[in-house]
Structures are given as C-alpha cells and as structure tokens.
Amino acid sequence: MTKQVTLAVKELRKTIRGKEIIKGISFELHEGEVFGFLGPNGAGKTTTIRMLVGLIRPTSGTVAICGYDLHRQFTDAIRQIGCIVENPEMYPYLTGWENLEHFARMMPGIGADRIMEVAKLVGLEQRIHDRVGTYSLGMRQRLGIAQALLGKPKVLILDEPTNGLDPAGIREMRAFIRFLAETEGLSVLVSSHLLSEIQLMCDRVAIMAKGRLLAVDTVERLLNQQARVVWKAAPTDRARALLAAETEVLRADEETIVTPYEPSRLAAWNAKLVQAGVSVSEIEPRLPTLEDLFIELTGGETIE
Amino acid sequence: MSKLVYNEMLKIVRKKRLWVIAAIIAVLVALFTYAQYRETEELRKRLGTTDWRTQLQQQIVDLQNRLQSPSMSEEWRKYLQIRLKQQQYYLEHNINPSAPGAPTFMRTFIENAIDLFLPLLVMVVAADLVSSEASAGTIKLLLVRPVKRWKILLSKYIALLLSVSLIMLMAAVLSYAISGLVFGYGGFRLPLLTGFVQQGEDLNTANVHMIPQWKYILIELGLAAFVSVVVGTLTFMFSVLLRSTAAVMGIMLAALISGAILSNMVSSWHSAKYLFMVNLRLTDYIKGAAPPIEGMTLGFSMAVLAVWGLAGLLVAFFVFMQRDVY
Predict the structure, then answer these.
(1) Which ranges form a coiled coil (chain A) (predicted)?
(2) Mind telling me how many Å the CA of A295 is from chain B's nearest CA?
C-alpha cells in the first residue's frame, strides 16, 4: 500500500558562517503517520525543522509540501503546515481566544466556528476566554497545538511537544498525536531527544546526529536489524570459536556470547555446538532498545 | 492587509501603550501649564502690569543689556542681535508675539516638543514593534502563516504610522484642552509673523508676512508629524535589527539627546548638518530662529530627514525579508 507523500525533503543543507550545520538530509513523510525525529541536543533537529517551515533559508536542497515548493510557492506550501517551533509562545496579554483569532486573521477562510472547534479539540473551551498569561504550561502547550491545527493542515510539525509536561500530560499528548494521525489522517513530525517517547508513538523514525540522518526506517525494522542473540554455553571458549566460524561474534565474556540474530540459521548453529559437545543452556534473542541502537549508530555518542 | 493592520493595532492597544502615552502627555501638559501660569504671574508682579507691550519692551531692554556684556561668544551675540531685531519688529508693528491663550500654549508646546518629547513618545510605540516579537518568540508564529514576510512588516509599519497620527492628535487635543482651563480657549485668529530668513548676521525680513495662528499651528503640527514619522521609522529599523527593546530605546535616546547637544556646538563642523538628529527642530525655521549650522534651511532639513527615513525603511525591509529566524 503506497500512501501519499505529504512532505518531501531533498538534500537539505545549511551552512552558517562557513560551518556546515546540516549536511544534506533527505526524507519523506506519508499521510497518516507519526514520524519521529530523534537526536541529541545540538544534532540539528530544530534547525532542520525551521527550514521545513520557512523560518530559515536552506543553503541548498528543497522542501516540498503536498507538492508545493516551500520557497517558490511559499504561501501555498505553508498553508498545508501547522507547527510549533520550540515553545508555543503566545501573546500573554491577549486571551486564548484572541490569540487564535489573531492567527486566524492571517489565514483565509478561518472563522469563529473553526476556532471553537480547535479549542474543543484540545480541551481548552473552559478557559479559552482567559488571558494566556494566566495559563499553565500544559494549557499553553494545548493552545500551541490549537493554533497549529487552526488552518486545517495536512502536516503537523511539533518540536519537542512534551517538553515541560508532567507524566499525565505526556501520556495525554501522546494519545492526542496518535489520534490526529489515525483519525484525522495528518502526517505528524515529532522531534525529541527522548528515545522512549519516540518508541511509544512513532511509526517511523529518523535518527539524526551532527547534522546527518544516520537511519530512517520503521521503529520495528530498525530494532530488528540490530537484534542480537545472547548465548550461554559451556565451555565458552569452544562455543565462541565455533560460532565465530559461522557468524560474527560481537561480544563475549566468561558466560555469554553475543552474535547477530539470524532466525533462519539459529537452529543450525545450535546443532553444530551440540555436536561438538558444547552444552548450550540458553539461547536468547534480544531486541535492543532504541538507546543501544543510537549508541551503535553514532559510535558511542550518548543522549541524555 | 487590513486584517493584518488590525492585528498589529490590537496588539499596540492591548499593551496599553497609547494610554500610557496619553497619560504622559496629560501630566506634562498640566505641569507646563502651571509653570507657564507662574511665569506669567511673576512677570506681572515684576512689571506691575500685564500689558504685553511693557513686557516686550522689558525683554528688549534685557536683550540690550545682555549684549553689553563683553564676555560673550560671537555666536551668542549674533543670535541675541537677531532676536532683538525680531522683537523690535513685533513692537513696531503692534503684534503680541505670545498672546496668552490655549492656542499659543499649544504652539510653544509643539515647538519645544518637536525634537525630543514627541519623538520619545513615538519611540515608546515603535521600539518594541518587532523586537518584542523576536525576543518573546511570537515572531515564529507570525512567519509560518500563508502571508509573505514583507506584508507582515508593512502591516506593522502602517500600524506605526496610525499610532504616530494618534499621538499627534492626542498631543494637540490634550495641550489645547488642558491649558485652556487656565489661559482660556481663544486666540486662533491671532496674527503671527513668519518668513524670517537668517542671512549671516542679518535677519532678512523681506519675506516676513502675517498668518493667523491656526494656520501657523497646523504647519507646526505637520512638521512635528514629519519629524515623528522619521524618528519612528528609524526606531522601527532598529527594532527589526535588534532583539532587545531596551537596546533599541538606548540607541535612539542616545541619538536624540546627542542631537540636542550637538545642535549647540556644531556651528563650525559643517558636515554635521547631514546627521538626522541636528535637523529635528523644523519649527525653528518657521519661527525664524537661527539654525545650528549656517546654510541649513527648511527644505534642506526635510530632505535630510526624508533620506534617513527612506534608508531606514529599506534596511528594515531588506533585513526582515532575508533574515533567518532562530
């Protein structure tokens, strides 16, 4: 099944004062999916997102939104996007409603009924006529989502949407993002430096470090690629030598040997070990966490 | 576009900037009215009469006495001699130069406010028009709408022009209404002299003619509005260039105050006349007071201001449209 591409990024680069910050990244977003943008702080996630919404001009490369080129057809392209870049800053001296009204005036065909609709959607209808200065961070975050949804976008871009929320708020936000993708058919791009978050709500994930995309794939497949088998066998030395002849031994210590996970060949390896008189006590396939994956891909760079 | 301008005006109004400005004008006008009243009283006591003719004669005698003083710079002497000629002209032609009344107060208020006070009020609105959005981060939410960047900036500039008009209106109405309580509301038809031209040491009175005070005030208001727009535009440019509203205010204040200081000491530094801040006292040309640098005329000053304003506007738009927003 091929889903429609809503956002296509090709060879995007940005050089600031002679230093290349973004080193040629390409990816696509499909209709109805939640796409995770994962990387440590300083990897270039926010810079990339700013280029996607036209706040920063790329040095080279293109961004197309629903077929419109972001730079040549700015207004047509940007109309398809709703976004929160960093914190959802609003005018604190206006009410939530006035803030939404203010942004609605900048978009054609958005009236009071749509404002009420999004206010209800994010659950703010009770406090919508209060001044934003009196809102809690969670409420501001919701108002941020409300302004992003105001123009009925096809693509929603959220930069660190759970930043500063409490655990209940985070869970709620996650459910809401899934709802928008599944029920409303939006493409949602979510950036985060938190692995657990991406793992829990994204269909596909792009891993970014030092201005490059290291991998783009479904969460499942990325994890499977890196799946391991942990062997417990005695004597360990013999087992290790035998396994090394068949596959790559990634790690070994006194008790355990780690090899790549290849389900089709696992039984044969085991038979060889048994024939050679090695007693195999445990064969455990293990999926890495995204964290392991990340360390593997970046060559040891950690994320907090 | 009208919706965008509405947005910008809404923000200015809801930040209560215009109310603050109205309050500042009201308080200061009341203060000046009282000071003016005390001065008139003092003069009346000293001269024992309220006859303006006596006052004028007294002023002329004062001027003559001061001109006797040997320790006086050549420039100052020149200026006093010119003033003397002007006042003698008034006396000979039986014209009261400062007939009390709200319109006269209004006129002197505008003359004194044109180079510092009115620009200052305009700055209160202009300084944070763009910089506050940048420092609060709301600029990002503005720029990701289906509206081109130049339209967003233009809507802000139009809102600034509207605010300048409102400020001028408030200054005119409040200074008239408040001072009228003390001095009475009459005096719009009072004839005034204009057209004095400085030619070296001589006051050229060849073009001097009489116009009613209301016309005079309208001319001054127009000139003050022109100065306010130019200062507002320059402030607007700095507001685009800098994120910090305080820095914008600081730079503009320094420029305005340096203008006031420079005007008193640049008579021999001729190229200083191309600085915008020494060209702000446009009303002086109407009044016939000596310009800070010889050879400066109303047309020259307005041209210099217009060039500065246009340059500022170009820089503001160019930077705003090119800039990466972080």
Answers:
(1) none
(2) 29
Ordered mean pLDDT values, 10 residues apiece, chain B (326 residues): 92 91 94 88 69 80 84 70 74 67 88 91 93 91 93 96 95 92 77 67 62 86 95 96 93 92 80 89 84 84 96 96 88
The pLDDT of residue B208: 61
Strands B191-194, B209-212: pairing kind = antiparallel
In order of start, what are the domains of chain A with their CATH numbers? 5-223 (3.40.50.300), 228-286 (3.30.70)
Q: Which residue of A has its CA nearest to B135?
A: A89
- CA–CA dist A28, B96 (Å, integer): 81
pLDDT (tens digit, 9 = 90+) per residue, B243-288?
Answer: 899 999 999 999 999 988 888 887 778 888 899 988 998 988 888 7
- For chain A, say whether B310 makes contact (Cβ under 8 Å): no
Query: A-B interface: how many C-beta pairs under 8 angstroms?
Result: 75
ipTM comes to 0.80
The residue of chain B nearest to residue A53, with distances taken between CA atoms, is B144
Q: Do B144 and A55 touch (CB under 8 A)?
A: yes
Residue pair B314/B236 in contact by the 8 Å Cβ criterion: no
Minimum Cα–Cα distance from A78: chain B residue: B146
Q: What DSSP assignment string belongs to B287-317?
A: HTPPPSSTT--HHHHHHHHHHHHHHHHHHHH
